[in-house]
Amino acid sequence: MTTLRLLSPLTGVVRPVSAVPDPVFAEGMVGPGIAIAPQHVQHQTVLAPADGVVGALHPHAFALELGEGRTILVHLGIDTVGLAGQGFTLHVDGGQTVRAGDRLVTWSPVDVSAAGLATICPVVALQADPDLLSLLVADGDTVQAGEPLLDWA
Fold it and tell me: Which chain regions cross the lipid bilayer (predicted)?
């Protein structure tokens, strides 16, 4: 398989996935990855981390099918499914082909925080071998949306 470079879907501070306050993500049950603590802003745009096809799509989360059996999951905040889409605007449809850097979702970390929910965003390589992921940004560093985040061998 070819090495795939994944871009950061949003701007924020890089954190280990173990920092996510949800055991499904923190313990790597769905796969390895990284988390991003987003900027505390009213409106933030979430970009496609790579070329792919939008698979599962919800206002608060999406899976992007990347080919070669690889899928990346981006989850905006924790327990945000309970917001029933409030504060999230989708810009794509399920099954749509997207390019790296395309706008997928706009959301409000401020509103999610005001609802008492964690805003941290897991970015997970579904069912991947952790040894195949290489982090390109150090824990605690700020990454801008669209900048290189991970390489997936």
Answer: none
